[in-house]
Amino acid sequence: MADLLAYAYPWVKSFHVVSVIAWMAGLFYLPRLFVYHTEQTDGSARMDGAFQTMETKLLRLIMNPAMISTWLFGFLLLSTPGIVDWGQPWPWIKAAGVIALTWFHMWCAARRREFAEGRNTRTGRTYRMMNEVPTLLLIVIVIAVIVRPF
Predict the structure, then answer these.
(1) Please, how many CA atoms are within 13 Å of residue 146, restricted to the half-sphere of its CB?
(2) How far apart are CA 38 and CA 75, in angstroms?
(3) CA gap 138, 102 in Å, rounded
(4) FRET label pair with 37: which of 52, 75, 89, 137, CA 20 to 30 Å apart?
(5) Tens of pLDDT, residues 29-49
(6) DSSP class per residue in the chain
(7) Quick check: 16 and 73 in contact, CB under 8 A?
């Protein structure tokens, strides 16, 4: 199994990066849709329905599969011998960042459900501030993995 993982390593890493890019795109865009949904609907059922369609499709068709494939390819990378030294701080920092991104993903999914049920109580400002969370986590993860300053 170790030989197969070592042989497939460049492919697995490539698919991991593609999955992360797709996931991050959704994590950046969904809170922005929430801002517009909160500030632009003005009680219009038509606009509300359009935003709900966009939010649902983004979450279910892009973000969920991208998150799952990010985790799957990440675990395959972790299983490849010689790739991760858990004695160093960087993999722990990356793991914490990925768990935080997953929490943010679930937070966004819960907010989408609130919109669908007509129970959104958050302001556009709240969603604008939360929109910065994935950016900050991305910076921490990339520096931990590439620079490894710790």
Answers:
(1) 6
(2) 37
(3) 12
(4) 137
(5) 999 999 999 999 877 899 999
(6) -HHHHHHHHHHHHHHHHHHHHHHHHHHHHHHHHHHHHHHH-TT-HHHHHHHHHHHHHIIIIIIHHHHHHHHHHHHHHHHSTTS--TTSSHHHHHHHHHHHHHHHHHHHHHHHHHHHTT-----HHHHHHHTTHHHHHHHHHHIIIII---
(7) yes
